[in-house]
Amino acid sequence: MSEAATRPKHVGSAVRRVEDPRLLAGQGSYVADLFPADALHVAFRRSEHGHARIRGVDAAAAAALPGVIAVVTAAELDGLVRPVRATSRMANYQATATRPLAAGKVRYVGEPVVAVLAESRYIAEDGAELVEIDYDPLPDIADPEAAAQPDAPVLNPETSSNILVDRSFSRGEPEAAMAAAPHRVGGRFRFHRKAPIAMEPRACLATIERGRGALTLHSATQIPGIIRDALADALDLPGHALRVVAPDVGGGFGGKASLYAEEMVVAALARRHGRAIGWVADRMEDILSTSHGFDEIVDAELGFDADGRLLALRADILGDIGAASIYPWTAALEPVQVASFLPGPYRLASYRGHVRAVATSKAPTGPYRGVGRPISTFVMERLVDMAAHRLGLDPVELRRRNLIKAEEFPYKIGSGIIWDRSGFQECLESACATIDYAALRREQEVARAAGRWIGIGVASYAELTGIGSRISAAPGMPINTGTETADISIDSTGAVTAKFGVASHGQGLETTLTQIVADELGARLADIRIVQGDSAAVPHGTGTYASRSAVLAGGAATLSARVVRQKLVAAAAHLLEASEADIEVEEGRVRVAGTDRELTFREVARAVYSEMGRFPRDTRPDLSASETYDPYFGTTASATHIAMVEIDPGTFSVRVLRHVVAEDCGRLINPMIVDGQVHGGVAQGIGAALLEEVIYDERGQIVTANLVDYLVPTAAEIPSLEVAHVESELPATIGGYRGMGEGGTIGAPAAIANAVSDALAPLGIEIAELPVTPERLFRLIQAARTQI
Amino acid sequence: MTAKQHIALTVNGRRVEAEVEPRLLLADFLRGTLGLTGTHVGCEHGVCGACTILLDGVSARSCLTLAVQADGSSVETVESLGSPEMLSDLQLVFREHHALQCGFCTPGMLMTATDLLRTQPLATDEEIRDGLSGNLCRCTGYENIVRALRAAAARRETTTP
Ligand code: FES
Ligand code: FES
């Protein structure tokens, strides 16, 4: 195609980030930095009960506090903002509503019940504490297995049971193949609930343009376009009077990828009061109310033959999705993805998966980095290791025999997902080579002989990224997540502005999209400005989630830039009196090849837009384009992780000594940024495997609502991380990019679980529950020792 | 409301006087009263380190410090290091090593790093990791922050006589 596409200049190199100077100098603009001096602050009084009926609210003391402007309950918001429902096309799905404030009953600790509006955050919080809420406790619905029983009390009045989703997958002859399998391994696996813990707590700020009644909501969100569309309905506003902006956002990881009650309240109150109103979460309410992730019980069994050939897989998945179905992803998102991805990157003819999503009185779950696949990978990779152990085969060898090979793509797995060509085998070999697997095993032998508990764990996985319009990013969700638009223009000064519907929250999209636009357009990096995270930038966009932005926005950028470049070439050919074929564009200049006749972008732009008489009236061009990209199927990204761990026999804490990732994300736009994404993902995976757990007691009381009890890994717990890149064969996406933002978190927990099991193999311990905390490990080891 | 108290301190080399409520956190004073929003608040309970500043030259958590406690002190925030157009050596080394993603932890990391580079040998990665262990970063997995600090420590060796 264009010469830029074949000779990329910036794509593929470690371009320094555009975002960095402002962020390093403390000049970023996060939502909490944007409050005007006269903004009012909201504080929420949240439920202290897991499940209770609200008998009454006494707001008198709060309302009397000097500086308190209003104390607001659900009833007062009726008519100002409508509840939003996460609908689905999935059979056996029960929708629930997202309401601004709890009405009638509370369903989890932390659910917002009353909003206090005041002149400062300090006063708003004082006011919230003075609110008296009278509750009638209702039966506890904290245990997912009990909540799934037919006679269990029902949490959401609009549903007939707590089972919000019930779905099965079947392929091949799962029952017969399992029964006939010469060997079987299996067990009950438990992956405990996590909190995303972006370092910036959630926050939002609504400002009003009084002259025309327009509302701008600045929100720490990954999905400004989806929030705009949902609030436009909820508030009954046209899109041009409602703009949602995600400014600098301090991390998201999925936790900022849903619509929240606080956004509805803040927007509705700003409209009612006609002035700027905002809310900034403290860490406790962030942990209480930001969507959690990964809470599943999986009963699974794998059948295989004496050569280690995998024959049949069966799984029963119970997902504890918390109090309600989150908007827009629905309760299906996390648990159904576990069932969809469980067969993994393997050749496996027969699969049966059954999944239920059950509501309990805990914070709603939603997307969290990896969505479902950290669990599916944990379970499948544990089963594969257990199979290897049974046969006395090396776990790498068993994977080598079963991973789908180059010539077998495209490959349809048991849940119906189709893998396109990706380096499954290549990643395994590359990870082994990078870490020198054979040497590592020898090292382990020596350490074991010296009495040390050292283990090596391997995990391979595949994921679907850059998903186009054929399926939704969440199973059954009726919202189109398969397209993105890029609006690129060269203005009359020759400056390039490229606008997108995606919303960077640390990924460095301003940089990677600049690289793509610069290459395709022939512009200089410094001439390009990327506008993103703003619902007003393009007519429709959804945001950044599901490892989609490099693929979708990158593809849209390429399409639009090519059109603009063509217009630029045509204009320059006219101005330079040359043929279009002879025009070259490079470094912000257009030139007649082989001559010194050239014009800068600025000169072309001025001639096009500002100068009289340079073009015939009917051929005066513009230098802009807006193109939309839909990769339709999406593409497969894959990786193998290898971890080496050591268990301290005194404290039972696990230390990760080495962690290597070999991954295939197609063409790298910016290797420095890709490595950074892998590092961050792996650290979250290590946290998920060893430290992090949101704990509720049997009454639905959360006991980990701060960073002392909810342990996020620090620099001292994370080892030095090594990353290798495999470019197997470029996928059919524009530019050859695959998504890669989540992968680190998908592979790491499984690799570490396998490594810990390997370390304890002499005791016959198989890890089936994560996180594997010192306490859990102590119990497992005690039990194993008493058995011996 | 309790009566406001008068405080006088130096912030980034500038003399500042104000009347503040006794309960006002130093972080909120810096951000809200002075508009120095580079200091971030990530937990308000002293764990995350996003709010780290230098108080009389020593790293401190501005979410655990009251503004009135800083009376008579000298405070340095991230804004004292460099500007977007003219980054400091430490900021440049962070950029070079891609030691930030979302940037929310970064001001606190930079202030902690400033303190560490002044006072610690930072001879090994382990020392660097220990030194950083009071500052949480959820984006980078710490790898590139450690690399940046390793480079900064090495440069310090070659530049100090
Ligand atoms: S905000 Fe001060 S330590 Fe987290
Ligand atoms: S860069 Fe995002 S928390 Fe550190």
Automatic annotation (TrEMBL), chain A:
**UniProtKB keywords:** Molybdenum, Oxidoreductase
A matching Pfam family: MoCoBD_1
Q: Which GO terms describe its molecular function?
A: iron ion binding; oxidoreductase activity
Question: Which PANTHER family does this chain map to?
Answer: ALDEHYDE OXIDASE 1-RELATED (PTHR11908:SF132), XANTHINE DEHYDROGENASE (PTHR11908)
Looking at the keywords, is Secreted present?
A: no
State the protein's name.
Xanthine dehydrogenase family protein
InterPro entries, sorted: Ald_Oxase/Xan_DH_a/b, Ald_Oxase/Xan_DH_a/b_sf, Ald_Oxase/xanthine_DH-like, AldOxase/xan_DH_MoCoBD1, AldOxase/xan_DH_MoCoBD2, AldOxase/xan_DH_Mopterin-bd_sf
> Where would I find the Aldehyde oxidase/xanthine dehydrogenase a/b hammerhead domain in this sequence?
25-139
UniProtKB/TrEMBL annotation, chain B:
Q: What is this protein called?
A: (2Fe-2S)-binding protein
Supply the Pfam families for this chain.
Answer: Fer2 (PF00111), Fer2_2 (PF01799)
- Lineage of the source organism? Bacteria, Pseudomonadati, Pseudomonadota, Alphaproteobacteria, Acetobacterales
Keyword Transmembrane listed: no
- State the species of origin: Neoroseomonas eburnea
Q: Which domain of life is it from?
A: Bacteria
This entry's Gene Ontology molecular function terms read: 2 iron, 2 sulfur cluster binding; metal ion binding; oxidoreductase activity
Query: Boundaries of each 2Fe-2S ferredoxin-type domain copy?
Result: 5-81
PROSITE patterns in the record, alphabetically? 2FE2S_FER_1 (PS00197), 2FE2S_FER_2 (PS51085)
Q: Which UniProt keywords apply?
A: 2Fe-2S, Iron, Iron-sulfur, Metal-binding, Oxidoreductase
